[in-house]
Amino acid sequence: MLWNRTCAQPCTTIATKTGELKQRCKWRVPSNLTISVLLACLPPCQLASTLGTEPSNEILERIAANNIKHYSVAFSVLREYKLHNLRFDKEATVSVQVTYRPGKGMTYELLESSGSPKLAEIVEKVLASEVDTSSPAKLARHLISPANYEVSLRGTETVAGRTCYVIDLVPKHKSRYLVKGTAWVDRSSYDVVRLEGAPSASVSMWIGTPHIEMEFSPIDGLWLPVHTGAVSSSLLLGTSELEIRYWDYVIINPDNPAPSRAADSIQPSRP
């Protein structure tokens, strides 16, 4: 059961399943310069065959430039993590207030926890891992950038009403924070609209290597995750599903102590 999905309501779903499972999961991550005249004038469908890997590298550099912009803005968001294990038919729900500040990273405040204590503990380990990797010393290691990825341009597609470049991502090294898969990149802004794939290394013995899908939307000019999900299977837990719902984004102005609620943020209605 998902909340009403709007650009102000990121959600995340991690699922672990064996056998057949529709993988409607998507996971949240963030992403400008100018395209050359030649690249701008060529029809999108001819880019890959005419220019080889050059446009792919150009797109990758512009995504990296957007990352710098996105991670220079402080914001907070409410998240709800829901982990459901199918083998044991257990579930846990954890609600947190997440805050990100440039130069400091992510912090979170636990608001509520219910359900299986063991599954709730796994969720808190996921949160602790996010906090660790958001630190200034580690952040650059898992961003979509030339330092971390090799890419190739497949063509263009329309996603969420936007014309997007479709690029294949291949991590340059194994990491549970680098995704081997496909990114859909807005042709005008060079922001990531959608990301799909699997980590290049196992996430953990509890989660395994999930299939991940992430969607992003503009919130007050920043492209932030609006839905994240994954499907994975582990030897210990079998099939599990994790969903993360996001709402009430607040953009924090460093010149104003009072946070400003994002204009695009809408409180989702609970079922």
**What is the number of helical segments per DSSP (H or I, 4+ residues)?**
4
CATH class: Mainly Beta
Number of strands: 12
Overall mean pLDDT stands at: 77
CATH architecture: Clam
**Which percent range describes the beta-strand content?**
35-45%
CATH names the topology as outer membrane lipoprotein receptor (LolB), chain A
Q: Identify the overall geometry.
A: globular
Q: Classify the secondary structure makeup into a structural class.
A: alpha+beta
Number of domains: 1
Q: Would you list the SSEs in sequence order as H and E?
A: EHHHEEEHEEEEEEEE
Helix content: 10-25%
Largest sheet composition: 12 strands, mixed
Uncertain runs are: 1-54, 263-271
- Ends: how far apart? 8 Å
User: How large is the radius of gyration?
Assistant: 18 Å
Folded structure, characterized:
This protein has helices at residues 37-41, 47-51, 54-70, 117-133, and strands at 11-15, 74-85, 90-101, 105-115, 149-159, 162-171, 179-186, 192-199, 211-219, 222-234, 238-252, 260-261. With 271 residues, it is of the alpha+beta class. The protein has a single domain (11-250), classed as Clam (outer membrane lipoprotein receptor (LolB), chain A), CATH 2.50.20. Strands 1, 2, 3, 4, 5, 6, 7, 8, 9, 10, 11 and 12 form a twelve-stranded mixed β-sheet that branches. A hairpin with a 4-residue loop joins strand 2 (74-85) and strand 3. The protein is globular, with a radius of gyration of 18 Å.
